[in-house]
Design a protein that fits this description.
By secondary structure, the chain is an alpha/beta fold. It is about 30% helix and about 20% strand. The longest helix has 14 residues, at about 120-135.
C-alpha cells in the first residue's frame, strides 16, 4: 500500500507566559538556532511528512518566513498563518489553512513548535497507529 499524504501543522503562536522570558520559548536560541528550527527540521527531513503549515503569532508571519523558513531552507513549509488567542484557536486556524494546499492531506499531524524532540521514530509510530486505529496521540512519560 502507498503512503498517504501527510501534513504537519506546527503551532508556534504561543507566548510562553509561564516561562517568564522576554523571548517566546520557540524563538530562544539553542546552539545558535531558534528552538522552532529543530522542530521544523525534523518534519523537513521526515519521509512521513509531505507539507508543513506553520501557525505563528499574528504579525510575525513575515519575520518567521525571512528569519526561519527561508534562512534555513525549510521547503516543506507551504504556508505561514496567524494563530489565535488560545491553542485551540491556533489548531483551528491550522486546520482551516489546509485548504490552501494544492493537494489535500489524508493525515494531519499537529505538533507544538517548542517541542523539538520529535523524531522519525515518533512520526513513523504515529503514522502506523493512525493507519491501524484511525487516530492517535503521541505522548512521552515525564
Amino acid at each position: 500500500m502507498d503512503k498517504k499524504k501527510c501534513t504537519a501543522i506546527v503551532l508556534s503562536a504561543g507566548q510562553g507566559k509561564r516561562m517568564g522570558s522576554a523571548i517566546q520559548k520557540q524563538y530562544i536560541e539553542l546552539s545558535g538556532k531558534p528552538i522552532i528550527f529543530y522542530t521544523l527540521d525534523a518534519f523537513q527531513k521526515s519521509a512521513i511528512i509531505d507539507d508543513i503549515v506553520l501557525v505563528v503569532g499574528e504579525g510575525q508571519e513575515k519575520w518567521v518566513r525571512d528569519e526561519i523558513v527561508e534562512k534555513y531552507q525549510l521547503t516543506k513549509v507551504r504556508s505561514i498563518i496567524p494563530g489565535g488567542k488560545e491553542r485551540y484557536d491556533s489548531v483551528w486556524a491550522g486546520l482551516r489553512g489546509l485548504h490552501a494546499l494544492k493537494d489535500q492531506p489524508e493525515y494531519v499531524f499537529i505538533h507544538d513548535g517548542a517541542r523539538m524532540f520529535v523524531d522519525e521514530q515518533i512520526l513513523t509510530r504515529g503514522y502506523e497507529n493512525v493507519e491501524k486505529f484511525g487516530a492517535c496521540v503521541a505522548g512521552m512519560p515525564s
